[in-house]
Predict the 3D structure of the following.
Amino acid sequence: MQVTLKILRYNPEKDAQPHYERYTLDAEPTDRILDVLEKIKAYEDGTLTFRRSCAHGVCGSCAMRINGRNRLACKTLLQTLDTSKEITVEPILGLPRVKDLIVDMTTFFDNYKKVMPYFINDEPLPEDGRERLQSPEERERFDDTTKCILCGACTTACPTFWADNSYVGPSAIVNAHRFIFDSRDRAAAERLKILAGESGVFRCRTAFNCTEACPREIQITKAIAEVKRAIITGRLD
Amino acid sequence: MSFKTASEGYVKYQGLGNWAFVLHRLTGLGVILFLIIHVLDTAAVYFKPDLYVDAVSLYRSPVFGLGEILLVLSIIYHGLNGLRVIYFDMINPDMWTIEINRKSVIWTWIITLVLWLPAAVVMGSHILEHLGG
């Protein structure tokens, strides 16, 4: 079958403004958008620029807007889209464009660092000097938010982040949630204090775009609501 | 990032959640605009009664009548959607799933229309009566 991709192109050395270019080529219904982009780059236009790495939905490099929604190009099969029409491919929104489908993720990772997304526990190790044990129920409490691959699809689908990227964004809150509700961690109060601030969870307007955009199917809006509740009640249940 | 980026997202980003959110914002803006005008014109009763009389006669025009019908739509949708969000967010976060969210958005629109249509018919017929003299 034939498929047409309408791609938002931007070369900062040549273009004053981004513009769309169309590419029509043969493809299989089982091809992914990433496969089509690779074909365009190999056979049609070698200047097309995008991020990719694992191509298996794990590295989080190829998040982009496909037909107006954030998705991973490597997880979006053509057969799930209406190929009788042009497929629009644009960079994720809310971060500075670098070139074509590549954006500068610095702000995204700066926001991620704000929530201390790492394990904190200064207490001595258990007597056997090995792992800090946790029950299956305690592990289950934050299982969903361990799945984040930091692709940025959620944060760049967030209307609050579009308007003001000092808002930490859904991804940072998901990664904070992962440690806040971890029974072994000891810095929940600090993280909740950060997230109770003016750039924190209460900037969330529950548009729900983040949950729809997450390629890992994390219940992001629910996680944000749980963090809000923990701040309000002071309890981690 | 900016007003421009947010506007692009509001208009172009696809999805029921985004549309529900944008509609919530627009109806909220409509309601606040009405409240500002309402407070100002009512204040005019005290400060400048003539202006108040002029304003009230202006509000009797069909254009403002249509605006009032849209105002009722805005209040009903903004209120219902607000209650939906408060319930999900503050009382039952387990309901923040894709399926429940999509269904609840559609139900909010349906209930809004069911509540709004009778009001729109009554208000619309008043406008028509007024036009007919």
Q: What stands out?
A: The domain at 18-132 of chain B is CATH 1.20.1300.10 (3 helical TM bundles of succinate and fumarate reductases). Chain B has a mean pLDDT of 92.
